[in-house]
Amino acid sequence: MSLSHRPSGQGPIHATVRRFLGSETSAGMLLMIVVLLAVVTANSPLASVYFDALHVFIGPMSLEHWINDALMALFFLLVGLEIKREMLDGQLSSWSRRVLPGAGAVGGMVVPALIYIVFNQGDPTAAQGWAIPTATDIAFALGVLSLAGPRVPVTLKVFLAALAIIDDLGAVVIIALFYANDLNYWALGGAAVIFFALIGMNRLGGRRLAAYLVLGAALWCLVFLSGIHATIAGVLLALTIPLKLTREMTEASHSESPLHRLEHGLQGPVAFLIVPLFGFANAGVSLTDVTLASLSEPVTLGVGLGLAAGKLVGVLGAVVLMVRAGFAGLPRAASWPQVVGIAFLCGIGFTMSLFVGQLAFEDQAIQDRAKLGILIGSSVSGIAGYLMLRFSSRRA
Length: 396
Fold this sequence. Notes:
Strand content: under 5%
Strand order of the largest sheet: 1-2
Structural class: mainly alpha
Distance between the termini: 18 Å
């Protein structure tokens, strides 16, 4: 049953992430503030302090890696729990609902990559950055979406979360195949063993949340050591957390379901601590050596247009094709103008795009061009998406 048409007698919905996606405007505002603060700090006299602090080592990793690889794994875990819920009982419970975000994610990766290649096909070095505009930043996209308030149906917010996760998982696969040079296959094998152990514990009826978290920590360590982005461990763990359904309610009570308990425990720290830290650590882009002439550089144009235009065309085109062909339907209560707004938000690249840019280019000058494209493309996408959602109406 869809989110917007649940019978009122079925009891309260305990999906804490759904509340995060639906009503945490304050969390979205906080995220926007820290992003602006990061950009200002990175271009102020405090820039050296800012960048040096991110590279301070705390134990085996730098502060930047603790935020991006460890803390953000909890964010992916939280979103993964919500996606699992929706696939079992909600917006993604039918094939037509599952296929739509998947098609949108594929279109949103292919078209931006093609746009980038068109601008940079004559330069083999620059062409290595083709994957930069293919990623969607979940945290920033959901942060902007939250600013639009309750006028956006929850089903559309879940659709964006599902699309963004599929998109980022695609980005992780791209990184592993095209940018990871030193994969540790022993660690990958160990991660697979842990993952199947988690699945087995679920199948055997295990309900002790602590046991899942202990194995999940081991899974994260092995995924991190494997050379694949460690945040994927959060999604894998989420898939194995038990969700107990009852006959009386569409969703189990908070005390009966390990999935609900874990969501409840993660929602506050993720929304008001982890995501803002993540935004502040990654949004600081130095514009010191950037000039207006940089706007015409092929790398800048490829990245900027790939995000702002490529994502819009790819995501919206895939959704239109799937809906018109009858393979899927729009998220319930969502209008086409709102879908356009969501397609724009998918062009917010930021973190994963910056990460891919660092892997693709060793030359700092080319990295700066890519960063400028990311900043411009993501900003245009965020503003356009917000305006579309802010002034669009729901479907009757």
